[in-house]
Write a structure and sequence with these properties.
alpha+beta, 4 strands, globular
Amino acid sequence: MQLISTLFRSALEFIEARQGVDGRLELQTRRVEDRVTIRISDNGAGVPDADVDNVFCQGYTTAGGLGSRLHHGANLVREMGGAIEMVTPGINFTFAIVLSLPISGVSEESD
């Protein structure tokens, strides 16, 4: 839950940086076999193309501060056996993060 909160906080900062635009933050979840995918998208200020490969690196920041939130979040996802990536977002979004995490101890109910 801390990870989702961290990603939301970062998204809201980017939305606030884009003045004059109605902010939009979207959370989507999807289960595929034994994994859950969580997609967080926003229409904030975005990340420059030249910086895309550095988004999850320690020290990367566009808003000041230490630049450790996304790095720490990416490390948490990897420790849980998941993956995190920045994807090219769809229409009306400038940034999206997709988390893919394994589901353990969950069984499907049968009809």
